[in-house]
Amino acid sequence: MNRFLTVDRALRSAAPHALLDVAGSALAQHYAASSVDLLMADYSRKALQPVTPIPRSARPLPLHSTPQGRAFGAQEPCTAADSAGGTVAVHVPVSVHGDRLGVLSVTLPGTSCPPEVAEELTEIAQVLGREILVADRSCDLFLLARRKERLTLAAEMQWQLLPGGSCAQREYAMGAQLEPAYSIHGDAFDWAVSADRLSLTVVNGMGEGTDASLLTTLGVNALRNARRAGVPIADQAALADQAVYAQHRGALHLSALLLCVDLASGRMQVVDAGSPRMLRMRRGAVVETVDFEAQLPLGMFEETVYLAQEFHVEPGDRLVIVSDGVYTVADAGGEPYGDTALARAIATTRLLPAAEVPSAVLRELTSYRGAPELDDDALVVCLDWFGRSPAATGPAG
């Protein structure tokens, strides 16, 4: 059995809380690693947090301007040689189907890393990523490593509701980011993919604190329940509308934008039930707001009927969806951010991968506002559409 398979087997059989220790021991034994560190991207996507026992003593690293950050951003191995010590640090991304979790840093003897070793370490990091997602179901170690500070209760509820912060398949790549990351309370996103279609939802629950989180949790799970029952997208909105209305009798409602994309053709069905807004960048240059027929938010009235609209995406299109906490933010003079500034920010980030666009737009938003913290939730979702070639028969592994 070769060394990669041996490490792979060790990781798959490790107890969730001992996963990093097992990885360190296996890499030391089979790759002569002198140190092994795992760093997780924090909720704000601004730092890489070392995974250590509580209380934590290791300091977080900036996501930018470090070798570890470059490995995370480029999703490629990054090496840093220490000639005096005769070692080389190899930093490889820990990702699962485009969901960027963090970075595995391995220190090896020598001053360079052979390409085949870097490739094996990259594959080991992918195995580790899958095991981390499994471990999260029964262990807090890796969840705690994603936070630089304590979450509010509302934010705790919201982050547990969300899928990963990024996702990629053959036909598309997506990224999403919520701010303020440690005190969010109303905005959320959800996505799911099958062999035939991609479903994407962006929601904004009215209110503040745990009340808003409870409302959003109800709405997102009602939409999931309807989607998993196999009903069309318009009926998904109607069933979620009934669930929210039955609970709050119109006193609270939920804005939502529902998208369902046919992976083979790029044909999209859309239900616009509130405030989330979508912009499209075509051919890497032209940014325009996409206007849909506005329908009532979910839960406002009893038995609202929703209709799906048709839309089409072309290979190379970039769709950016934002909550009202983005385009209504005002600068010091009271001028709203608006579609013009948002379009400019999207155009500026045209060379970034989809996973990095939301954070870049939110940094621009913070600079525009002139203050470090936002008054309202701000959510940005970016979808890059590549399309499916005629020879493609299913999603990438």
Automatic annotation (TrEMBL):
Signal peptide: none
Keyword vocabulary terms for this entry: Hydrolase
Record domain PPM-type phosphatase: where: 169-385
Keyword match Transferase: no
Source superkingdom: Bacteria
Any GO MF annotation of the entry: phosphatase activity
Keyword Lipoprotein attributed: no
Protein's UniProt name: Phosphatase
Organism lineage: Bacteria, Bacillati, Actinomycetota, Actinomycetes, Kitasatosporales
